[in-house]
Amino acid sequence: MKGKHVLLTGGTGGLGLGVTPTVIAQGAAAVTIPYRNPKDMERLKGILSPADFARIQFVTADLKDEASVENLINQMARVDVLIHLVGGFSMGKTHEYSFENWKRDFDINLNTTFLVCKHSLKSMLHNGYGRIVTVGSRGAVEPTGQLAAYCASKAGVVALTKAIADETKGTNITANVVLPSVIDTPTNRESMGIENADRWVKPESLAEVICFLASEAAKDIRGAAVPVYGSI
What InterPro entries does this protein's entry cite (predicted)? Predict the structure, then answer.
């Protein structure tokens, strides 16, 4: 990604703390990370050098609001690479799950993906280059009980990404999605315990897959749904 302008959503989250340093290490010229809480930026300060941290542009944005997403992307010189990590996980039996929670899950998992892809694509099509990498889930292709909203919304992410890949055939724009199983983040350790954490996918490992798909080397890969399951 040397010299590329990267939009990295969720760059301060559990997965983002693995992906952001990898994007920086691979030579991105500029990395734009949307945020909502100033404390989010402090997470990266502790793991990046001052010089690397200075290469990041932080922009306040609500990725569920189209005007906010448009403003975010308008502040970038261009979007060469979109890596969309933002998402949310929740559980509940279908007959007990509230419609409000269902809509919330689709907002954070699918609707944010649509909005950032839509407006990043405009920049990519204008400049004739782009790499889009989204994050689905193993549950998108292997749904399990008590995860209906999560699995359905992540399946939508997979379908959306594949549709974009089909729309951009014949261009130098690609779109691919990764399908992680459980990611070894502090949040997952807190909610699920650490008994099986050694079998989960490490953020740094998933970062390598994501950054490959976002690179020049993956120019012939489009519409792929790449399983990254760890040892589960």
Answer: NAD(P)-bd_dom_sf, Sc_DH/Rdtase_CS, SDR_fam
